[in-house]
Amino acid sequence: MSTPSFPGTRLRRNRTDAWTRRLTAENVLSTGDLIWPIFIMDGENTISAVPSMPGVSRVTLDRLVGHVEHAAKLGIPALALFPMTPPSLKDAEGTEAKNPENLICRAARLLKREFPDFGLVGDVALDPYTDHGHDGVIRGDYVANDDTLEILQIQSVIQAEAGIDIIAPSDMMDGRVARIRAALDAKGLIHTRIMSYAAKYASAFYGPFRDAVGSGKALRGDKKTYQMDPANSDEALREVAMDIAEGADMVMVKPGMPYLDIIRRVHDTFKVPTFAYQVSGEYAMIAGAADRGWIDRERAMMESLLAFKRAGCAGVLTYFAVEAAEVLRRG
Length: 331
Ligand code: PBG
What we know:
Radius of gyration: 21 Å
Bound molecules: ligand PBG
CATH topology: TIM Barrel
CATH architecture: Alpha-Beta Barrel
Oligomer: single chain
CATH class: Alpha Beta
């Protein structure tokens, strides 16, 4: 009898060559998983770089079609629109959020006309429109939940009427999903989906985004009375349960990479389409380190996106969407 070889199980066998690795891969990232967040601004004929997000820019509406054409050709399913509102249009109540002629609504009408196959995601919260940078209106020194809901309902309806397919409330007010669903349904907008930023944490990783939309310098204080404490995980499940009960069609965890454990728990518990937002600070970390030659941009990007799939995500909002889709197309 020959001596049995040791070790009997060699997991490295399935890693021997590229084709075996492909055959045995448990997860795969595809272009259909990507949502591309884009920044739009007022003015004409301008593409302006966001300094803290190398490679990301804000575009005026007359440049928008050209800006997204390539993404459409690559087959990216959806865009998420974020406005940089001119300071002159900001006030304490976020009035511009209710204007059917605001940047988001104009962009949505334009994009729907030019690219009917693109899904459009509209962020719902007041921070791009308030002069204090908070996601809701302030009463006393508190971001007032119920008064804010009144505005979010209107903001959601005008966005949906302009062509936004997925309303994505990112404000973290309690009860918003139910109120938004009711407001949409009352207008007959029964097909408008809701992707709630269900577990959104009070995070340091939003810094570059706030530069991009111009809400950072304005922000008074922090958002800890409404965004979640990074210490908490059970609470994320309560947030998600509430949002599903109120009518959310999809849920999101945000930020992404530091919260993969939350994604996994949410997906395992609820089995709903679960998304992650790989936020501006995560993008900046990878882009910044790559710019210094400290990591390989493409490999770090693809690894980070695959990690979201492994954690249970249906898809990812990522500033890398176009670049990742190019890599996927190359194969
Ligand atoms: C608005 C909103 C924020 C982000 C998305 N929607 C900022 C915030 O909550 O302060 C951050 C996205 C990013 O950092 O990429 N409520």
